[in-house]
Design goal:
The protein is mostly helical. The chain has 15 helices and no strands.
């Protein structure tokens, strides 16, 4: 990490910390209220579907507006939504206020993530992108490490509603820290692209995804990975605190372990130059193995190993996909096309949550996890090993 960019990465850390507090808290509180993993899966479906459907629109906005402005607005609005949502929860009760809060924050996170991608591409263009992406992921992983721990231990002494207020304050603090970054002058001017109606922008983006060699294969690979990620996120709280009868603090340490595994993998990726195909295949294989292990359910430690493989190599796969996008998407069409790609990549996450809601029983999601690992294996075989026409 460069000294001149400390404020930038610190702001990223604080934003991710707040996001991770909410991501940890929502499925756990819903499972505590309902006692059923199916409810956690349903909540995951409703909170993630709007998030990923918003990516094409977010991409169009990133091509038309200043990404730094979009990044700041997304943070501030997340804080406001937290205040409104938790007020409604306190006044009216029920789990739906919490689900709605997560859904709206997720849509705003989508805009923030895509704007951040644009900033990374344009402000760090003089650096090797795999290295920049690795450092940005490492900064984010600091938030991933501390988010679950902060939420779990604060929930031990505070009501969970107060923890949401803590996340609100962190969003505001992240925006204040971002103002200290002096790297805006390094933002490259984007090439002027043809000004089209938003519907035509979407049509252009979908056409590029279909026509640019390698993009559609990468979309299918990412869909396989995100099936596993979605099922894991939707079921981890129920599996650990329900099926395996572990404490909330143990579940938090599982999340920390996943973040530590990610640190190790990202550090390796930043300092060792892997070929792009090797990077993608290795990450996909490790995530597939992890999904199989979480679905076996033979022992908590086996589940932990599987979870660590999924968490650690997810970010390696993310770097593979991001680097591929940067190399082959025209610069003038980058925002809208990336938005469509991320939407297609991640739509399998809420579908995995829906599968959990329909097919899981009580606190046991093993059958769903094994079925998803089978689907992931098929997608990997079709896309990584099928020769191009």
């Amino acid at each position: 990490m460069l000294v001149r960019d400390r404020a930038f990465f610190a702001s990223m850390f604080l934003t991710v910390l707040a996001d991770q507090i909410l991501l940890f808290l929502v499925p756990l509180v819903i499972f505590q209220i309902t006692g059923n993993v199916a409810w956690s899966g349903l909540a995951f479906f409703f909170e993630t579907l709007p998030r990923y459907l918003a990516f094409p629109v977010a991409g169009i906005l990133c091509d038309r507006l200043n990404p730094i402005l979009l990044l700041r607005v997304s943070r501030i609005l997340r804080a406001v939504v937290c205040l409104v949502g938790i007020t409604g929860q306190i006044v009216f009760g029920g789990v739906w206020w919490l689900i709605a809060l997560s859904a709206v924050v997720g849509v705003l996170t989508t805009q923030g993530l895509l704007a951040l991608e644009m900033v990374l591409v344009r402000a760090f263009s003089d650096e090797r992108f795999e290295k920049v992406a690795s450092y940005s992921q490492l900064a984010a992983q600091m938030g991933v490490v501390l988010g679950p721990l902060t939420a779990a231990y604060m929930m031990a002494i505070w009501p969970w509603e107060a923890v949401v207020f803590l996340a609100t304050g962190l969003f505001f603090l992240a925006d204040g820290t971002f103002l200290l970054w002096r790297g805006q002058g390094r933002m490259e001017q984007r090439p002027e692209s043809e000004r089209r109606h938003p519907v035509k922008d979407l049509a252009t983006a979908f056409r590029l995804v279909w026509q640019i060699p390698g993009l559609m294969r990468a979309v299918l690979q990412a869909a396989g990975v995100n099936l596993a990620i979605g099922a894991t996120l939707a079921t981890a709280a129920a599996m650990m605190t329900g099926f395996y009868a572990q404490s909330e603090q143990t579940y938090a340490w599982l999340q920390v372990g996943g973040a530590a595994a990610t640190f190790a993998v990202l550090t390796m990726t930043a300092h060792i130059h892997f070929g792009l195909k090797t990077l993608g295949r290795a990450a996909y294989a490790m995530i597939l193995l992890g999904t199989v292990l979480t679905g076996l359910g033979v022992h908590p430690l086996v589940y932990v190993v599987g979870f660590l493989l999924i968490a650690g190599f997810d970010k390696m796969f993310n770097i593979y996909v991001r680097t591929l996008r940067k190399e082959i998407i025209p610069a003038g069409e980058f925002g809208k096309t990336t938005g469509v790609i991320i939407c297609l990549n991640n739509i399998s996450q809420p579908l995995a949550g829906l599968a959990v809601a329909v097919f899981a029983s009580g606190d046991d999601a093993r059958t769903v996890l094994l079925a998803i690992s089978g689907a992931m294996a098929v997608l990997g075989a079709l896309t990584f090993f099928k020769r191009a026409a």
